Amino acid sequence: MRIDKFLKVSRIIKRRSVAKEIADQGRISVNGRVIKSSSEVHPNDEIVIKFGNKTLTVRVKELLDTTKKDDAQRMYEIINEEYERDFRSENE
Prior knowledge:
Blueprint (H helix, E strand, L loop, with lengths): L2 H7 L6 H9 L3 E3 L2 E2 L11 E6 L2 E7 L15 E8 L3 H5 L1
């Protein structure tokens, strides 16, 4: 399954076009390699996504073509979620 579709179906990112844009900006890596939106993901792959001041690391558990909201979290497990601190507000 393509990474942009996985992120949309798993509801990690709400829109496939946004997932595609983030991937094509080099803000997503799979198993340590920066990838493009057309790259394939497989079960047990580790995905790192950089959203602004947040970095989310997930492991692919299963691939589903469609999901209901309750089933979406079966597709992945969160390994780590980090927030960068805003140093500007601390120094003011």
